[in-house]
Amino acid sequence: MSPLPPPLPPMVALLALLGAAPLAAAEMSEAVWHRALISQAQLDAAATSERFQVADEILCAALANAAPWCQLLTHEGTTCVLYDVVVDSLDDAAADAATTCRTRHRNVCIVEGEPLPHGAMLVHNCLPALCWNRAIVPAVTEVWVGVKSRMWLDNRDVASGEWGPNDPNGAPDECARMLMENGKYTLADKGCSATFIFLCMRPS
Known about the structure:
With 204 residues, this protein is mainly beta. Helices cover 13% and strands 35% of the residues. The chain is built from four helices and 15 strands. It comes from Scylla paramamosain (Mud crab).
């Protein structure tokens, strides 16, 4: 009579019972799950969620690693729930946040529900921007716009309120660029031979 095979380690056995292939150790630790707080309303807004019964939070994290769509997990008692909700562990929790969770994300910008890592470039309000410490900041400070000789390209005069506090102060035939000052964009004239990126508009 052949000897019985050795018993499976508890973690592998449980994953097998759940219908998941046993995960290599590297796969089980591939993501760092950061602690955060979340409200029930945020969890209820998930487009995708999946529930399992597992004893340990580490097993819940292993299941989350195997689900690429999973952005967040909760584990309470023996109930593990995976969600596609994106939150940043460093952001201030909502006033009604009472559920402890773990999220994949730390120090990211969340744009239309998608996480962008620190240092990522994006287009925000038609201009190049940068995700920096969870904030979207302008990547440039001077941008050419359609102004020449103090008129817009559609032949409208530039309104006085569109100029910065000390502009226009150059030659009458200069072009204009847009500057960000004190959180507000204003126009400043500049010789047309200068080099900046430019902002343009096209018919929809």
